[in-house]
Amino acid sequence: MSNMADGKAMGRINALLDEGSFVEIGGEIKARGTDFNLKQTDTPGDGVITGYGVIDGNLVYVYSQDASVLGGAIGEMHGKKIANIYDMAMKMGAPVIGLIDSAGLRLQEGTDSLEAFGGLYFKQTMASGVIPQITAVFGGCGGGLSILTSLSDFVFMEEKSGKLFLNSPNAIEKNDKSKVDTSSAVFQSEESGLVDFVGNTDEILGNIRLLVTMLPMNNEEEAGFAEVTDDLNRLVESVEGAKEDTGIVLSMISDNGVLFESKRSYGKDMVTGFIKLNGMTIGAVANRWKVYDENAEVTAEFDGSLSIRGTKKAAQFVKFCDAFSIPVLTLTNVNGFSATMCGEKSLAKSTGALAYAFANATVPKVNVIIGEAFGSAYTVMNSKALGADVVYAWPSVKIGMMNSDLAAKIMYADEELSVIKEKAKEYDALQNSVVSAAGRGYVDTIIEPESTRKYLIGAFEMLYTKKEDRPMKKHGTV
Fold first, then answer.
1. Residue 5: pLDDT above 50?
2. Which of 127-136, 309-318, 411-420 shows the lowest per-residue confidence on average (mean pLDDT)?
3. CB 284 within 8 A of CB 277
4. Regarding the domain delimited by 8-209, which CATH topology (the fold level of the hierarchy) does it fall under?
5. Where are the domains of the chain?
6. Is the pTM of this model over 0.90?
7. Domain 227-394+447-462 belongs to what architecture?
8. Any residues with CB less than 8 A from the CB of 52 and at least 6 apart, and which?
9. Residue 259, Cβ density class (10 Å: 0-12 exposed, 13-18 middle, ≥19 buried)
10. Tens digit of pLDDT for each residue in 73-122?
11. How many Cβ atoms sit within 10 Å of the Cβ of residue 197?
């Protein structure tokens, strides 16, 4: 074992994996220095520890960079060690977890270092959709190294010491770090949406362990079934009252309240994450109108429309679930599209990507309409038209083209206010009624909110053997 064993790099590995399970690979490898006196520099392990171990009994491959060796910079042998871990993970069908703490590209090795970067990009691309890739940033992660995070499925970041950037904050025109720290965990989680979870080291490692236990080990294996101690027929009495914050709703219906929320600080008007139903991992996508904290105080509020960030976040998540055969649940409560100048620049594109993700996914898909479901925004949220296998709706919901008051104003623009009000009521009954939607087959079953959990468990059990083909093609272009 390399003499880095007592440093932060090894400490993170030991804290992440089951006790005593780590086996190091390539511990004696050092830099193959050629220029700038690198031959005279001791480079134990070439600045990265690589190997394998288990998390709750599940095989994982890990690399952990050591900033005490040349700043943890990636050179030729450093890159080859990580690439070797990827090769082994692909053969064995196991996740790769990268613990980043690096100065980036090793300048002393020039094009050898660039080649190492390119080789890792290729390995990650080949692994995408085959094995889960998880990256955690504990120190520096700049320049070309940041692309490793963008090629990962899930990214964690230490709240204080983590620095993630393509261009450093001071290199951006009209900006410096004191104005906007674009390398900070806050920026990368809230603005760029690259980071899924921000916290201290213990919180990060604990959440990685939770995530690994909820994911399949590869694209040919099912996600691990957890032992079920929760009542499968449990009624969720107050769930309708929580519908504005679907993060709470998902926790309420999940086995024992388990929820791993991805990109939790980005596009908060959309919740994406994993829950458990009868021990089965389910990917959840849900519209959210309000965010409540642990003290039941509102910390964010939205207008019920689809946004660029929300649709991007949801589309990426659905694609991941489909790649790894994780069933998808949606909780729909949406009234239209965000009407802003910024939105017009790319909302149609991001919404198209969301529609594509749902329509293209062949995994079991269940939709529960819990509030409003108006217009094309409702259609792209995993509707029957896009291929949802089962659609449930709560009795109080509204489903239709648009809000009845607005519809009446458009259709009867020249009439008096009393006529418009009367026509709005008529439109509500005929066009926006959940009974009307169910009568046309767009809703399969109208269910009581408190029965949502047991209906979902039954639906996903019924859909367990689902098989569905798509037209033969290399891949889509959306």
1. no
2. 411-420
3. no
4. 2-enoyl-CoA Hydratase; Chain A, domain 1 (3.90.226)
5. 8-209, 227-394+447-462
6. yes
7. Alpha-Beta Complex (3.90)
8. 22, 23, 25, 59, 60, 61, 62, 85, 88, 94
9. buried
10. 888 889 999 999 999 999 999 999 999 999 888 877 888 889 999 999 99
11. 23
